[in-house]
Write a structure and sequence with these properties.
It is a single chain. This protein is α+β, with helices and mostly antiparallel strands and 351 residues long. It has twelve helices and eleven strands. The chain has a five-stranded antiparallel β-sheet. A two-stranded antiparallel sheet has the order 6-9. A two-stranded antiparallel sheet has the order 7-8. Strand 7 and strand 8 form a beta hairpin. Helix 4 packs antiparallel against helix 5.
Length: 351
């Protein structure tokens, strides 16, 4: 039954008749098939499921992904996403170009960074409203971060509250209109003969591209396979991103990468998978329990992020006190739980 592809008459007329379908691994929020059509072409069929959501919420996720893919389809030169071949709104089905993934390679980050910059540069102010704006940290996240420090008996410098308020203002996505993937994690990037293409645009939004460039430094915060990128490769991929962006837009990348990293640090929901976000204060759990996502624990993710922000803000005009607090928090976590491991390095990417 699960291998029955949900094609209605309109899709059959537009795309063709499915001959064989293979159900692929996907999140609980969707079903995905690789389908061979009667004319021998391969396509990908994706159906957004409710997974406990209301029907309206599932339709919203479907519309968001389709909109993101169609905006990504503007790319000139090598594509950055699969082409949308057909859609059926009532059944929340999209038929996508099949991409042949060349598989794992040790040298994956430069191509990823180039395609990420090309994706981000596809949209501008004229596209306002085409997708939701990026949803970043809130005042409640900032307060949870301060509460975490107090729970661990780490003194909070007096300037931190004002610095966090300023950070939230600077992270306001309103002035920015880059096309954000929303979850640009290993596994959502396919290495094809024409370059890296991104899939799974269910969380696509408009905002500042730096919040996704920050993934390299902050440990891929929305991904189960958190990893650390070391100094020389980190410099290279950030240069590739900035050079690509500048070549496409004629401008430097706007904003401050340290702000983007600090924004990820204070979001407790970035410690857990999507199904658990918005349920409880995840930072409040850290002093009393460690909890795994993938093969990395919440405390291990948090120590990495704290150390990154501490290193980036030693001479920062607007986040110096936040950096000192981050350094003290990292030291306290490591002193209290000495068995915490560093994140795996980028050359141990799981696929």
């Amino acid at each position: 039954m699960m291998n029955r592809v949900p094609f209605n008459e309109a899709l059959l007329a537009t795309v063709g008749t499915p001959q064989r379908a293979t159900l692929l691994d996907s999140s609980p929020r969707s079903r995905v098939w690789r389908v061979r059509l009667a004319d021998r072409r391969l396509v990908i069929v994706k159906q957004i499921t409710d997974d406990g959501d209301t029907d309206a919420d599932a339709h919203t996720r479907f519309a968001r992904e389709v909109a993101g893919l169609r905006l990504a389809g503007r790319a000139s030169g090598p594509a950055v996403a699969p082409v949308v071949l057909a859609t059926d709104l009532p059944s929340r089905v999209m038929v996508l170009e099949y991409l042949e993934d060349l598989g794992r390679t040790d040298d994956w980050m430069s191509g990823y960074a180039e395609s990420l910059a090309r994706l981000h540069a596809l949209t501008g102010p004229a596209d306002a409203g085409a997708l939701p704006v990026w949803s970043g940290p809130t005042a409640a996240d900032a307060e949870s971060f301060l509460t975490l420090a107090r729970a661990l008996d780490v003194p909070v410098p007096s300037a931190v509250s004002d610095e966090l308020a300023g950070l939230l203002d600077r992270l306001d996505p309103a002035p920015h209109h880059a096309l954000l993937h929303g979850d640009p994690c290993p596994g959502n990037d396919l290495r094809t003969a024409d370059g890296v293409r991104f899939v799974d645009f269910e969380r696509a939004s408009l905002g500042n591209g730096l919040v996704e460039l920050a993934y390299f430094r902050i440990g891929f915060p929305t991904c189960w396979c958190a990893m650390s990128v070391t100094a020389a490769p980190l410099t290279e991929v950030e240069d590739v991103y900035r050079t690509t962006w500048r070549g496409l837009t004629g401008k430097d990348v706007p904003g401050d990468l340290a702000d983007a990293c600090a924004g990820w640090l204070i979001q407790g929901d970035a410690l857990v998978e999507r199904a658990h976000r918005g349920t409880v204060d995840q930072l409040a759990r850290v002093p009393v329990e460690d909890f795994a996502w993938g093969y990395v624990s919440a405390r291990e993710r948090l120590v990495h992020r704290l150390s990154v922000v501490a290193d980036m803000t030693r001479a920062h005009d607007h986040l110096h006190a936040v950096g000192r607090l981050s350094s003290a928090l990292a030291d306290r976590l490591l002193a209290r739980w000495s068995n915490l491991r560093p994140l795996p390095t980028h050359d141990t990417r799981p696929w």
